[in-house]
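Session log. Operator J.P. requested a structure for one protein chain; no other inputs attached. Running the standard single-chain path with C-alpha cell output.
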Amino acid sequence: MTPSDRAARAVALFRVAPFDLGGLWLRGRAGPVRDRVLAALAPMRPAKLHPSMPEDAVMGGTDLAATLAAGRLVRMAGLLERAPVLVLTMAEACPAGLAARIAQALDAGGRAVVALDEAAEEGEGLPRSLADRLALFVDLDGMLPSDFRLPPLADAAVAAAAARYPAVTVPDGALVALVRAAAEMGISSLRAPLLALSAARAAAALRQADTVAPEDLELAAELVFAHRGLPPMEAAEDSAPEPPPPPAETPDTGPSDDSDQTPQDFPAEMLVEAARAVLPPDLLERLAQGRTRKAGGSGAGAARKGNRRGRPLPARGGPASPDARIDLVATLRSAAPWQAARARMYPRLIEAGRRLILLPGDLRARRYEDKSDRVLIFAVDASGSAAMARLGEAKGAVELLLARAYAERDHVALVAFRGVAAELVLPPTRSLVQTKKRLAGVPGGGGTPLASGLRVAMLAARQAQARGMAPTLAILTDGRANIALDGTANRAQAAEDAGRLAALIADAGLPAVVIDTGFRPTPALQDLARRMGARWLALPRADSGVMAAALSASMEGKRR
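Structure written below.
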C-alpha cells in the first residue's frame, strides 16, 4: 500500500466512524500534501483549535460583557461544546492541561480530533493522553506533492457506510486476534485493540459488507497498531519469558472447547506483520523513545515547581501571597454574576454611587507556569579498568554531549568515581569551558566504586530538584564494580550495593541513561539499567548522535 493509499484509507475510515475512532494523527509539516488531506476532511466541517487559545474559549465560561449588561450570569459555550470535530494545530506544543481536557471530552463521546503534529526534533510529539485515544496515524513526512494523490470520496458512499457501520458484526476470534497482535508488538494500552476493532468495522462498512473480514483486520492493524508498537528488538526484550513445556499427552476423550483460541481465519502473526511493514524502523524507535520519557514523579496534568516563570496560566481564587498581582479581568468575571443580588444586599453602597461591589472572594491572582531548568548529571567511571579500556573515548563522547547541552542552555554537573569513593567534581553549571577543563583533569586508576558514584549522582539530582530543576542521570561505566559503599574491596557486596542504589533511583523517578564503556557489552550492566528503569547503550555501537537522542528522550523535551 502506497503512502497515498494509506492516507486515503485513514481519511475514509475516519469519516465513517469519527467518534468511535477518536481521531486522526497527522504527522508532517504544513504544505500541499497536508492541505490535500485536510481538504478531504472538509465535509466534516472541523473547527480549528490552537494550543494557545484561552481556557474559556476552549472550555466555555462567563461572558463578562453580557453578564454585566444583564445583571445575571450569562455563559458562553466553549469550542469543545460547539464543534464535534476539532483540528488541533501545533499538536506537538499542546500543554498537558489542554491535552487532558481534550482527552476527557473524547472519553465522554461525540467528539473527534484531527491532530496536526509538526514535530521536527527528537522528543517532540503528540501528548501521550491524546496519542492513546486517536486510532489512526498517517506520516506525511517526505511525501512529494507530485507523488501524493487522494482519490475523491463520494459523500453518498460515506453516508451509506456510516449508516451500515452500527450493524457490522464481528466474527468470533477477531478481537482475540487483535489483542494478541497488540501484545506481540508490546502495546500495553487496552484502547488499541478496541480502536482497531472499530477501524475494521468501518472498513467493512466501506466495502458494503455486513461482517468484518481478515483484510479489514489487516488494514486496522496497519493504521492503528503500527505507530504504537515497539521496534522488533525492543518488543522481543520486553516480551514475557517462554512458557513452560506443555503437559504430557492424555488420551483423547472427545472434542474439547477451543473457543478461547484464535480461529485460523484471524492469525495474530498476520496482523503483526501487516503493522510492522508499513512504517520504517527509525520512526518506530523515535515514537517508542517518546513513550519512555519519564514524568519526573508528577502526573500528566500536574504543574511541577520550577525555578523560572513561564507563560501565564488561568487565574485562580483563594488566599494570595503578598507579592501576587491581581488579575483584574478574572476578578471582574468572578464578581459580575452577583452584582444584582449585592445591590439588594448593600443598598447604601449603591446610594453612595458604588456601581461595582467586590468582595474578598472575588479576587483572582495572576499565575504563571513554572519553568524548570534541565540539568544533565554525568557520572563518569575513572577507575583502572575503565582507564585501560575506553576512558578517553568516554570523555570524548561526554564532550560531544556537553556541546549539545550547552546549545540547549541546560546545566551540566560532573561526578567522577574511582579508588574507594566518588566525588562531585563540578556542581550544576552552564560553563562549557569549566566543565571540559574539569573533565580533562579527571585521572584514571584504582577500583570501581560504582555504588558510590550512583549515590553521589542521586544526591546531586535531589539537590537539583530542590532548586526547581529537572535532572537527568548519564552513567558511563564498564560495570566492573568491585568497591562496596563502605570502601572495602568486595565484588559481591559492591554489586549488591549498586543494585540497591539503582532501585532507589528508579523509585525516585529520575530519568537515566546507562552507557556501557567496556570493550564488550556487560550483561550485569544491562540488568543494572533495567533495575534503574534506564535505557542501556553500548558505547561501541552508540555514536554521539544515538547517545544525544537517548539523553534528549530522557530529559523531557518540554521545558516547564
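Operator note: Residues 391-407 form the longest helix (17 residues).
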